[in-house]
Amino acid sequence: MFGLVFLNGTTVKGAKQQIDEVRALAKAEGRTVKFGVNGFVIQGADRTESARAARGDRRWRRSRDHAGLRRPGEGGASTAERIGMWADSSHANLVQPNDGFKTRLLGRPELIAERIRAYESGSA
Fold first, then answer.
1. Per the record, which residues fall in region Disordered (predicted)?
2. Confidence class of residue 123 from pLDDT cuts 50, 70 and 90?
3. Strand 32-37 to strand 41-43: parallel, antiparallel, or no bridges (unpaired)?
């Protein structure tokens, strides 16, 4: 049997840590797991990281204003550490609020493809 785990947006390193932990738990039970990562893509010709971040920030502000989202860190304290699911997130990372921009899938198509391959291979 297999299960499916859908991760909130995170860095490649963060995704690898979560995937390794869940795979070990599943293996102990004789199961396998498939994974998906929440990531928002903004494709454009922005040449710099700061230009891509500014574009993402504009998108975030528009979606936040329409959805009436709370500030990061106000998502509750549902984790064992009592810090809340989005305690280490900024507004720039959140959209509807699942950290979709933490994946950094922003910019030229080649850069987006490179970052997706990093998630597939588990290497930053």
1. 48-79
2. confident
3. unpaired
56 burial level (CB within 10 Å; 0-12, 13-18, 19+): buried
Contact 38, 100 (CB under 8 A): yes
Q: Which two tokens stand for residue 92?
A: 């720039």
Confidence of residue 29 (pLDDT cuts 50, 70, 90): very high
Looking up tokens 């599943």, which residue turns up?
26
Amino acid identity for residue 85 in this structure = M
pLDDT at residue 28 greater than cutoff 80: yes
State the total domains in the chain. Answer: 1
Residue 69 belongs to what domain range?
2-121
Structure token digits, residue 33 = 């797991």
Alpha-carbon span 59 to 21, nearest angstrom:
33
